[in-house]
Amino acid sequence: MVVAVEADLGNLHRYAGHDQPDDDLLRTCVHCGMCLPTCPTYRLTGQEMSSPRGRLWLMKSVADGRLDLLDPIFDEQMYQCLNCRACEAVCPSGVHYGPLVEAARSQLEQHRPRPFWQRATRKVAMGWLFGDGRRLRAAVAGLRLYQRSGLAALLRRSGALKLAGMEELEAMLPPVSRRSLVPGAEHWSSPEPVRAVRLFNGCVMGTVFADTNRAAARVMARNGASVDLPVGQQCCGALHVHAGMMDEARTLARANIDAFEATGDDAIVVTAAGCGAALKEYGYLLKDDAVYADRAARFSARVRDVTEHLAETDLVPPTVPVDRVVTYQEPCHLVHAQRIAVQPRKLLSAVPGLRLVEMRESSLCCGSAGIYNLIRKEMAEDLGDRKVRHVMETPATEVVTANPGCAMQLRASLRRNGSRVKVRHIVEILDEAYGGKQNIDSDGSARAGAERVG
Amino acid sequence: MDHAGLVQRLERILGPGGVFHRPGDLLVYEYDGSVDGAVDTARPAAVALPTTTEQVAAVVKLANEAGLPVVARGAGTGLSGGAVAQQGGIIISLTRMDRILEIDREDRTALVEPGVINLELSETALPEGFFFAPDPSSQKACTVGGNVAENSGGPHCLKYGVTTNHVLGLEVVLPDGRVVWTGGRAPGGSGYDLTAAMVGSEGMLGIVTKALVRLTPQPESVVVLLAAFGDMDAASHAVSGIIAAGIVPAALEMMDALTIEAVEPAYHAGYPMDAGAVLLIELDGPTGDVRETADEVSTLCRQAGATEVRTASEKAERDLLWKGRKMALAAMGRLAPNYYLHDTVVPRSKLPATLRRVGEVSKEYDLPIANVFHAGDGNLHPLMLFDRRRKGSVERVLEASHDLLHYCVEVGGALSGEHGIGTEKRDYMTLVFTADDLAAMAGVKNSFDPRGCFNPEKLFPKGYMCGEVRALRAQAMAQKLGIYAL
Amino acid sequence: MPSDHSTTATSPASASPPLIDGRVPGQVVAPLDGREVAEALATLASDGLVVAPVGGATALGLGNLPERLDVALSTANLGGIIEYEPTDLVISAGAGTRFGDLQAVLADHGQTLPIEVPRLADSTVGGLVATALSGPRRLGSGTLRDLLIGISVAHPSGTVTKAGGMVVKNVTGFDLPRLYHGSLGTLGVIVSANFKVLPLPRSETTVVAGFPSAGDALDAASRLYRSPLQPVALEAGRFESGWFASARFEGRDQTVRAAAAEAEHLLGGHAERFNAEESQRRWESYLAPQVIETTDDRPDLLVRCAVRPRDAVSLVQGITRVADERRFTISYLGCSMGLGTVMVRGVFLEGGSADALRALQERLLAIADHVTILSAPPDWKWGLDIWGRPPETLDVMRSLKEQFDPQRVLNRGRFAGGI
Fold first, then answer.
1. Cα–Cα distance list, B139 to B122, B136, C129 (Å)
2. What is the rounded CA–CA span in Å between residue C419 and residue B436?
3. Which of A83, A431, B204, C52 has CA 20 to 30 A from C353's CA?
4. Cross-chain residue pair B246–C341, CB shorter than 8 Å
């Protein structure tokens, strides 16, 4: 009889150290398979190991000593996962998949030998660049200079980007906002604010998409809020959690908790779905931290996605017609991780003139998934192309989304497929419907518009 | 042929991306959706992921040459162990054959590959005004190929029938590797109805590589009624009353108090928390018919003692009422970490007595059992709730299951309404069938698959297919008849 | 030995032996129960004899010429309702049960088995399952295959086996009931069968419209087929010397009335409405020409052609062309819209012959997927496979036959491919 060669299981590596996949959590999976069709990597490959159920079985196998933690298959699958959490939203048994895959990655980070150069780049990119807001703003300033100086056009023409393998990365980047948004430097308010909102800036939103954050602030101010950005806030740490770099993530989380604590119970509003999901999970991330556990839980309870926040308020009807057709791409970390699906659509339906046409598979991952599109180019492109196909089946001239990663991935995918469809953040559409920057003075009689102070 | 040789040959057929053979990769093909403890896991020697019928045929021929069993697999959501390679061999995973090849308005048919997801077929047919009627609870994930293999049902099969009523033809790879069509677009082909034999054959007779299925026109109007009762007896009487009045609802589902207790706080579907049982009754058809029938059903429910009857005609309202039913299994996690789900069917008139027996079994074994099921066709789904970590709990569940299955068979029921026999219930087959009955089924198996290489160790009781048992049976038969001298 | 068989028939069999394609079996046996059937079959098998199961003798002409015929096995003593629980909507009846009797019992409880074939009342349960004949109502209610949930069968191995059960939803074991359906008694003799039954429709109406030509009738029926209306039967063709299109509706009063009005409008032409019993009588008389001749040598043919539903209209045109070419006069033509079957009855102008029949079959096979010569003078069937083209799975079918009836005791040669 032909049988597969058994691996030598005598001397295998098992989970050890901190952040092990929670065994009870792991065993809530009854391998029913309901998650399969929601998983982007399963949809593309049709293979069981690339499904949430398969990955959980691999994690369980490592826990049971049936698979080596350092088996290349384990590494491959834990990192092939987009961590889009679509599986969580449909799981009949309520398996918390995200924390499990993150713990599995943390185990790999701790125990896997990596080549020196890989460690160094990760350290620089994840630790140094995203570890501090100022460093990132400086880097983006360089990028802005690159885009505006003509160097971009030159390099594009010369083909040097292609040589450097940077073409894709370059294509993803939207025109960078003129000025980064620096916490403490700007704030907005309605003339008679009824609530205070503390905006979470985010690395990419606060720099590349700083103008989107400003638009969000204007829209909230137009709806009765005073908006500011507490000083001392840092990157949310989502990228670090996704990569299994738990220690780095916890450091950032503590800094953010410290920065926002002084503002009481005010809502912490986020414009990036990825950041929002991470912030809402600080309670879990720091559950074993004696000093921060409770504070983290309180922090998480305050966090709202901007669409969630706006849908909770009595929306002032926008009056400027936006006569266009749009379709909505649901960011995974909004629809799956935060289960926010109705609110964005409700907001879009409030915009006069706007027609929302739903695309197929609007909640299937676009392939962005944090930095996934950089490290798993082929799979990310396949997902991006699939998404573009669905967008192009609709008559929409714009895709609306609510996460910077998705925005960049969509932009690159659309461009690659020769589409002229634009990508917008939902608050930009709302801002436009409220008159944009002009809305400060647009309604002289009521003076109810957003006011930028200082 | 050693393992390396096998892999090499498979890769020649499927390309390197179409074959899995490393131990770690094979780990994830050792299970399906069935419950641990009721079905053993088993690892194949290799997994093939074909994209064409020709590849499937080539793999089957190779398996024959290597003397290996072949197990076809769809999404692996089955609940009876049908997709587990009990004797190892090659698993042919059909998930990459997932194209809807044709939707024909005029013929009202769809031609699909086996890996197409059930619900996606219905969604694709929707703009044309049709749907694919079989709707098993796993319809968001399960494949049409799997539906054909298991003859899947679902809540709406009360009115529309099960999978076999909707399959017109199949392209099949036979155990000798030949590709043939059974049935087809035109009715009335000559010879035996091999399509009928294929549907529900649990992958033991052939591997479906294309299915021609019937599409059903969308009804003009749909209404869902929620009726609450003090106890399950009253609800059962309402069910009988509706049927006796000559009404065939599209679906007729019952949930008991324990289920409501789990479901309502989770989904706020609006089930009355103090009810002993609720019925969900879906009616569909021409608008006028539906309206009149809804009034009639409502009256019948009240006559049977319903404390409340609500009617939902808007889609959002209907979906909410259904959500509680469809997510009932999910909500059980609130009551216990594990459950074991049964699939017995009893004649509708035996429902009240059977439900009482379920209650007794629950007490005898100190095992909470929730009832959420297709009352219209007597298809029970008792859910035994337990905690695997408690010592002896699995054994207790299996013993209680044994009692329950016995009872259901005694009152004229069947072991499985829609989940299949697989390995899970194979040893219970002798409760229902005699050795002669099984011999007739074995005759079908032998005509398609004389070597027994397709999905071995399924459906027939353990040891049944081996030569020794067959010889003994033949001898016994001869003695009984006294006509053959062996 | 022949004398053995007659001893198994302890009750008087039908007075005269039935005529099967012009042959008279040497003996008729009428066993009293399933076990006796099985024993009789086993004995016949050991004696190397061939048996033809006989029910109501309403369709005995169906099949190839028997290769050999020794004994007729009548199910006359296997009649009667075995189990009926109206609230379960299921019924179990012996193979010899007259369908008319069965329907009467069901009707008393407001229920029905919605199938139609010519001479339905005199057909038996076993015969209907074995022949798998169906009528226009297949469009809305399916065939007996869709309603068959359990079966008991006697085999030449001397055993009686059951499959399926008395519940409407059942996947316990292979689906043998449906495999026996339409097997023309070549795998075993059906002893009893269980069915899912349906409530009688509250109301029914049939709309019939006459047309000057085949094209007009087919166009009208196609129009109705593509409309949102959902008739349970929709036919177009030639009946009683004129072209017609006809639709049958069932359901609640109001809806049926509204649908009928809409259908009249869609069909155009000179439409007429038939309600309740009138409607049923109308369909009975419409089905009468679809009868399979069993006793006489009338030189007319009944042929069933089938294509995918969308090609039904062009099939009718094709059949008309072929008929002209083969000098065949069509007296009756029924095209089932949405099903793709066309039933044709007619005679050859020059009286016909085996060669003429063979040529007609060949020509029809060129334009249809399936062609079945349901009824023809026995002399013409010599050497002909009335089932048309052999299926590509014939070897699997032969091996099924080998498994169930290795001595070929049952209806030898009568089934597709000479099984």
1. 10, 5, 32
2. 24
3. C52
4. no
Q: Which residues contact B180 (CB under 8 A, 6 or more apart)?
A: B171, B172, B174, C392, C393, C396
Distance CA B324, CA B180 (A): 43
Whether B6 contacts chain A with CB within 8 A: yes
Q: Which of A111, A133, A148 is the last residue of a domain?
A: A111
Across B221-230, B434-443, B470-479, least confident range: B470-479
**pLDDT band for position C357 (cuts 50, 70, 90):** very high
Query: What is the spatial distance between Cα B201 and Cα B179, in angstroms, rounded to a whole number?
Result: 17
For residue B186, the distance in angstroms to the closest alpha carbon of chain A comes to 33
B347 to C172: CB separation less than 8 angstroms, yes or no: no
Q: Which residue of B has its CA nearest to C188?
A: B440
Percent of residues, chain C, with pLDDT higher than 70: 95
User: Residue A303 pLDDT more than 80?
Assistant: yes
- Find out whether B385 and B369 touch, Cβ atoms under 8 Å: yes
Please give the Cα distance from A454 to C322 (Å, whole number).
92
pLDDT at position A440:
47
Is C166 within 8 Å of B412 when comparing Cβ atoms? yes
ipTM here = 0.95
How many domains in chain A?
2
Domain-located, residue A134: no
Per the domain annotation, does A212 fall within a domain?
Answer: no
Measured CB to CB, residues of chain A less than 8 Å from chain B are 1-7, 27-28, 30-37, 46-49, 51, 53-54, 57-58, 61, 66-67, 71-74, 90-94
Number of structural domains found in chain B:
5
Q: Give the CATH number for residue B294.
A: 3.30.70.2190
B57 and B87 co-located in one domain: yes
Q: Mutual orientation of helices A52-63 and A97-111 as an angle, nearest 10°?
A: 50
Torsion of CA A442, A316, A396, A176, to 10 degrees: 60
Amino acid identity, residue C186? Answer: T
Nearest to B440 by CA among A406, A157, A87, C156: C156
What is the extent of the structural domain holding B447? 428-481
Backbone angles phi, psi at A51, to 5 degrees: -110, 160
Residue B198 and residue B107 share a domain: yes
User: Which of A95, A111, A127 is the endpoint of a domain?
Assistant: A111
Residue A449 C-alpha from the chain's centroid: 30
Contacts of A57 in chain B (CB under 8 A): 27-28, 31
Q: How confident is the model at residue B77 (pLDDT cuts 50, 70, 90)?
A: very high
Which residue has 């496979």 as its token pair?
Answer: C385
Average pLDDT of the residues of chain A = 87
Nearest-CA distance C270 → chain B (Å) = 26
Report, in angstroms and rounded to the nearest whole number, the Rg of chain B calculated over CA atoms: 23
pLDDT of residue A449: 41
- Find the CATH number of the domain harbouring A383: 3.40.50
> DSSP characters for A433-452?
HTTGGGHHHH-TTT--S-EE
Report B:59-88 residues touching A (Cβ under 8 A). Answer: 66, 68, 75-77, 88
Chain B residue with minimum CA distance to C170: B417
Please provide the distance, in angstroms rounded to a whole number, between the alpha carbons at the two ends of chain C.
Answer: 25
The reply to whether A80 falls in a domain is yes
Residues of B in contact with A37 (CB under 8 A): 75, 117, 120, 140-141
Whether B486 is in a domain gets the answer no
- The answer to whether residue B331 sits within a structural domain is no
Whole domain around residue A38: which residue ranges?
2-111
Domain of A78, CATH number, reads 1.10.1060.10
- Chain C nearest-CA residue for B162: C169
| Domain-terminating residue out of B158, B187, B217 | B217
The 3-class secondary structure across C199-242, one letter per residue, is ECCCEEEEEEEEECCHHHHHHHHHHHHHCCCCCCEEEEEEECCE
Contacts of C141 in chain B (CB under 8 A): none
